Amino acid sequence: MTEPILASQAGYEKRLWVMSGAKAGDNAQMNALATALAGRGWQVDIRELQFVPWELATHFRSRPTLAGTRAGCRKQLSEPWPDLVISSGRRTELAARWVRKQSGSTKLVHLGRPWSRPECFDLVITTPQYRIPPAANVLCNDFPLTNSDQAPPEDLIQWQTTWRKLPKPRIGVLLGGNSGAYVFTPKLAERFALQVAKLNGSILATSSRRTPNAFMRVFAEKLSGPKFIHRWGDQANGNPYKAILASADLFVVTGDSVSMATEALATGKPTFVLDCEPRAGEACFADRLSWKPLSHRLAMRLAPLRYRRDVKQFQENLVREGFLRWLAEDTRPPEHGALVASTLHRELALSADRVEALFESRD
To answer: Which of 66, 120, 270, 352 has a beta carbon 3.0–4.6 Å from 116's, enabling a disulfide?
Structure first.
């Protein structure tokens, strides 16, 4: 079903589609921009895409196509065509380009790092960990786009009732998983649990789609003190992620995800980051040679500049500016984390301005 999820104002002039995929971080960025545009009178519709296992192969020719999507979701991509399509992540971009090929006039905005050449899009909104060369159609923000979406009041009450016996301070622990060169092993889980315990508070922890079960099991076992642990996919009582963002007094995020760090910083509360670089004995030779870490290392060395990313450098910049702290090095709260919220608001407004500028000649 492809019903609008964002309220649009009466008398809208333009329509946009959000090409929603499986990655929560990508979807969150697209929805943040779409929400900002909805507030300016755009009609927003979500197009939920599902992908075939061989989707990666469709990028070898880098041409507009729906070949990477499952047949069952293609029927939602039909006339009337939108004025704008927002995509993010590799999987959605060829479908977005296919829509423009059919319509002949749809504008394309891509968030993050496109696998297609940047000139295939009217606007690319990116961040420093992606090495997209400067261009007239490239906007490089300091942070991924995010908004201040809160947990629904009934969900917040439910989760806060669940956590009422956990003493304060409450530490929100947002766990990512295998990504690029990072492999989340049980040994890494043990190290993270020991570091988190240094903060002396109640733990509100949640995993993500990428968190391995073995990692999560060891993390939960080794984590001492009062705690609440939620495993991704256990939806019996819903997802506590937004409730944790609203309820925790400070945050710890794993260093594989820029989006999670940004969402924690957006609350204005102190945020620490866990270094995912493996230490001796934490990642075996087979882990390093599994296809994702190996392909990441090859891409960082051999691929065109736009295919590369450096999450560690992004985080080190934030540590240097006082927005984040490496938990292994210092348990004092960061000094300037509250300043991030105003930057995020400004960058979201600027990004919406740049999108609307694409249509100035048609108004």
So the answer is: 120
Identify whether 89 is part of a domain: yes
pLDDT for 5 equals 44
List the structure tokens of 309. 């990313």
Mapped onto helix, strand or coil, the DSSP state of residue 16 is: strand
| Tokens at 340, concatenated | 């991030």
Considering the chain, what is the average pLDDT of its residues?
Answer: 86
Three-state SS annotation for 74-94: HHHCCCCCCCEEEEECHHHHH
Structure letter (DSSP) for residue 52: -
Predicted TM-score (pTM) of the model is: 0.80
Residues sharing a CB contact under 8 Å with residue 323, sequence separation 6 or more, in sequence order: 265, 271, 334, 336, 337, 339, 340
Which pLDDT band holds residue 105 (cuts at 50, 70, 90)?
Answer: very high
Rounded CA separation 31/281 (Å): 40
Domain hosting residue 51, numbered range: 15-145+344-362
CATH code, domain with 21: 3.40.50.2000
Count of domains forming the chain: 2
Pairing of the two strands 271-274 and 325-326? parallel
CA distances to 18, 46, 350 from 43, rounded to whole Å, are 11, 10, 19
Judgement on whether residues 111 and 178 belong to the same structural domain of the protein: no
Determine phi and psi for 17, rounding to 5 degrees.
-110, 140
pLDDT given for residue 178 in this prediction: 87
99 and 197, same domain (yes or no): no
Q: Count CA within 13 A, CB hemisphere, residue 266.
A: 25
The amino acid at 23: K
Judgement on whether residues 178 and 295 belong to the same structural domain of the protein: yes
CA-nearest of 325, 323, 337, 159 to 248 is: 159
Average pLDDT over residues 153-173: 92
> Do the Cβ atoms of 141 and 135 come closer than 8 Å?
no
**Residue 111 has what DSSP assignment?**
E
In sequence order, what are the residues at sequence separation of 6 or more whose Cβ sits closer than 8 angstroms to the Cβ of residue 158?
237, 238, 243
**Confidence bin at 338 (pLDDT 50/70/90):** low
β-bridge partners, 228 = 204
